[in-house]
Structures are given as structure tokens and as C-alpha cells.
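Why this split exists: single-chain examples teach little about how molecules sit against one another. For that reason, every record in the complexes split bundles all components of an assembly together and asks for one structure covering all of them. Below is a record exactly as it appears in the raw files.
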Amino acid sequence: MELAEHLAEFTRRDWQTVDVPDEPVRFALVGLGWWAREQVVPALAASDYCEVGAVVSGSSSKAERVRERTEAERALDYEAYHDGEGTDAYDAVYVATPNATHLDFAATAADHGKAVLCEKPMEATVERAERLVERCDAAGVQLMVGYRMHVEPAARRMRELVRDGFLGDPALVEGAMCQDVFATVSPDPDQWRLDPDLAGGSALVDLGVYPLNTARFVLDADPTHAQGTTASPDEAFAGVDEHVSFEVAFDDGVAAACVASQYAQRRDHLTVTGTEGRATLKPAFFGEAQLTVERDDAEAAFSVEPVDEVRAEFDYFADCLLDGRDPGPDGEHALVDVRTTTAIYESADAGERVAVTS
Amino acid sequence: MELAEHLAEFTRRDWQTVDVPDEPVRFALVGLGWWAREQVVPALAASDYCEVGAVVSGSSSKAERVRERTEAERALDYEAYHDGEGTDAYDAVYVATPNATHLDFAATAADHGKAVLCEKPMEATVERAERLVERCDAAGVQLMVGYRMHVEPAARRMRELVRDGFLGDPALVEGAMCQDVFATVSPDPDQWRLDPDLAGGSALVDLGVYPLNTARFVLDADPTHAQGTTASPDEAFAGVDEHVSFEVAFDDGVAAACVASQYAQRRDHLTVTGTEGRATLKPAFFGEAQLTVERDDAEAAFSVEPVDEVRAEFDYFADCLLDGRDPGPDGEHALVDVRTTTAIYESADAGERVAVTS
């Protein structure tokens, strides 16, 4: 395989199948927190495939403020959403509420026959995540989970290099995602990301899941066993993991060692070392992924204009809906992450390696 | 603390106490393999504090060849060394034989009243490592283990930055050391580094011990628990670990996630992420350490001329002997690494986190 071939059209939308539609896919945005307002709304404003049809919040006034900004047709509170008001205004539902409420909002979407794009992690427990998948399956609606790295060109090119043997046999993965959540997301010590009931965990499920899931994606492999260690020295993180280190063994024999933190100097990378070479995403997960490849003593760093991963994620999902094919990563794929992070927490408590079973 | 203060005299020998002696410390080099011949002999040729007094090998002809090159006073085979021939020709013994034989050669040195500089890992099992320490203690000879990163200026400056709070509270450590042992050390598939009886392990004890021990050094902390996963997909590594990933929990609450490989694209780094900053050694362990520090959005990469770590290690040891003080890392320090790597292997077999006990 030729490296140049992989990289000639680095940022190409190799998943795109349909032309710009006359009628964009209209989304109901459910949960208008930091991520939806700061990342998703601008991405959809720039999109030719998607638009905001409805905005849904626990707060009617917040919904109305965002409706004005987005020119959405409807602003709904949660009760109105669950009651099925305004379903004519949207074709699909984007769920970005606290993790432990994803099931409820996705189930309502399924009841209304709407396709679901659900933020990661899919839910706060394996049991609720499984029910979420079942509800969408039973209703026959498409379900995708928002792992935006799957449409990140640098990650897609890395996956191709691994698949085509550029690294030889992959042997070891390293990954990290660390941030100061108070600086990046919100200064509020009571934000839901630090609430064990609403978030189901913190550093691991909010951040560590990026290197975990992206490793699965680039290796095209799934975890068999996992183990980890958590620490929460600061008061604000009582009940959730502030820092986590974890190891995952994959079904192709590769092992990953990763760290994540909600309160540390920012860091993000994913590094796959093989018998003959290495591929590194760094930066990786904060929306500016860049790829570096090495073999023997040669190193090439590809400097490409970052794409808007959120826009690409929504456009890909819309492309699948318009084309009538199933989007991925789907619910079954995302369940593996929920089972793996649950295994890591269990391991941290029990001091044992835990099998990741389906 | 001022960063400039830490770095103004980056490569200073902050451990040096004595002037260049009229009579350098004379070493017996025991074990004339790749490392001793290619790294140690040139380092001692350049040293003002040390010289080669005797060379000791299982092969008389190899010993004689190296004696000619080094102008050492004596060339000895192992029998002659154990019999105490030529002890007038050296003041101290450097042991660089296969790991599982360090005890025997160090014990003989102790019997002859010679100080011991023993290569890492100290021995192949905890029991033999403990006996090595006991023999040196009982004979009243000084024992140091060859963790050359302790005299590496970049690692020493990193330790100062951590100690002085530049990173805030250290939270997570990442580390890696990967090489192609056939390209770096020897193409021989039967080399002792791949022999379970002689080496007591491979990727972990030969390479992984670098990020492990250097993390201990820069954090000034010791492991409490360890876990790991090993893999040996290639035939040449039957019986030893070709690849390893491992996690270590330290007594200050920090966790480390590391990888090491004897057969992979070369890689080496040690990264400590704290609540307020980060310090990175990269390159780290192959003799060319460089330090990068980050805080908030600022990053400083210090480009300094690498020192000869092996020469510094011998000079430091000689300085201690000439000054009459005890060198470090000593046997008790190195025992912790042997206990930790043993715990990681036990964890890999048992699938459990293993306590590191003294």
C-alpha cells in the first residue's frame, strides 16, 4: 500500500453517498447544555444536510432562547416532548441530556418513530443502555451513538493504515484524554458531569471512552478484558472518578494502556505501536485531530485543516437516513463501551481484571 | 519557584563532591556483552574518575580482546574471578552478566570487599535479589543498581519541578519503552535477554522497568499495587513477555499506565500530568533524554546536549566511594522494582491487581 494514496485526499468525506438534499433532515435537539449550544448548534447552522427543527429543554425559557437563535420551528419543554407535541417539526432526535436520562428521551423518540442520534456514553448503566437499544430496535428506528471520531478524517486514515499493515502487527495502544472540566465545560462544581447518579461516572465515561472507542475503531477490535484504577482526591469529585488509568486487552491480542482526568493539564493522544511502525493522533479528541506516522527512522506529520467533527457526524447520520442505510456506530457497538467502562469500574473496586462479556 | 532557576544549569553535576582524583576508581567489568563493550567501555575511557582495572568474561579469549582494547591490568575468566585472582587490580565491581547470575558475581565481589555497581534489573527473582542485598550488607560493601536515569539531568530537573509543585498535584503518569531487540541489541534469537531462566522476563524487566523506576524517581513515590497484561505472539519470545502493558498505583495516589515491547517500533517517553501542568521526557530512555514542560497553554521544550548517562552513572558511583558516602539507588530501592515487576507478572497470570509488599 502507498502512504501517499492514503493521504492524498486526507479529509475526503469517504462516507458521503447523497447529494445536498432539497429538504434537510430536521433534528430535535434534546438537552440544551454546553455541548449542544456551543458545538451542535453552530455545526448544524453550517450544515447543508441538517437543520434544527425543534429545541427541547427542561427549561421553557432556555428552549425559547435557543429557538430564537436557531430559528427552529418549535421550542418544547420535556413534558411537551414526551407528550409528542411538535413531532411534525422534526425527523430525528439528538439526545444530549445527562447520561442517566438518555434512555427516557430515546425511548420517546422511538415511540414517535424518530431516528435517534444519542450522545456518548449511551447511558449510565449497562442495563439502561441495553433497554435503550431494545426500545429503538422494537420501534424499528435507527440508532447511532455520537462517537464523532468515527468521522474524523485523521482517525479514518489511521484505521486504513492499520488495516493495510503499515504498522506491521499492532502490539500496544496508548491513549489519554485529560482536561480541567471547570475551565473547559463549566465552573459549576454541581454540574451533572460530576454527579454519580446523572453521569454514571466521570473521567472514564466522559473522557476515557474517547481513547477506548477510538482504539476499537482504528484496530477494528473489541475488548475481552479490562482493568483500572480510579482516584478522586478533590472534594468536587466525591462519588465519581476524577482520574482514571486503565488497561484493555483486545480480541486481536493488542493491549491498551490509557489515562483520563477531569481535573488536570489538558492532554489528548492515541498512539498505536506495531512491530514495524506507529501511528499517532495528537491532538486527538478535542476537535483538532492530527496524524503522525513513523516507520523505522522516518516520521511524517500530516498537518491538515481540522474538520468540524460535529458537523461531519450529523451530516453522516443524515446521509444514512436520506440513503436509507443503517448508521454506525450503532447501539450494539456502543454497548461494548458501556460494558467495558462498567468492567473497569468493577475492576477498580474489586482489584481484579474483569471480562467484558456481551 | 522559578522555572529559569531550575533550568539555568540544566546539565550540572549536582551530585559531584570531589575533585578529579589522582588515582581513579578501578573497576572490574564482569560480563562483556553488548552493553559493557559498546556503552561502558567508551564511557570509562572518557571518565576522569574511573578506569578499567580488570575485565571478566566466561570466555578467556573475549576477556583478553577487551583487555587489550581497554588496557586493563587483568583479564579474568569467571573461575579466576570467583577464586579472587587479580583483586589488587580493581577497587569496585560492575556486574553486567545475565540477570539471573547477578547474585553470584555480586556475592563474590562482596566476599572480596569490593563495592558493587549492579546492572538493572538487580536479579531475576525477588528471593535472589534479596540475597544479593543481604550479601553486600553482610560484607559491608556499598551496592548501587544501574538506573542511569537517576543521573540524567533531564530526569533530575523533572524531579525538581514535580517536587516544587510546578505541575500542581501529580495525577497520572504515562510511560513507554519499545524497541526491536534484534536490531538494537543483537540479531541472535537465542540471546539471553529472551531466555526466561537467564533473564527472568523480557519486555517488562529489561525495558518497562525504565518508566517504572523513573516514575518512582521523579515522583519520589513507591508502588503499592500493580497489574499488567503480557503478550508474546512471536516464536522467539516463547517463555518471556514480548509486549507488556501495566498499571502501577503509587503511595501518593498517582497512577501510572505504561507499555513496553522488545519487538516494536521504537518508542520512549515518560509523561507526568498534574492538576496544573505537565512534564515530559521524550526522548527518554535511550540515552538522549529531553525535557518538555507545559502549564496552561504554554509549552517549553528544552533542547540540551545529551550527557553520557553511563559515564555520569560511573562517575557518580566513584564520587560516592571517594567521598565515603553511600550511593543510590541502593539495593533496597532496587528491590522495590523487582517486587513490582514480579507483582505485574503475577497479575498477568492471575488476572488480579497484586499488592507490592516489602
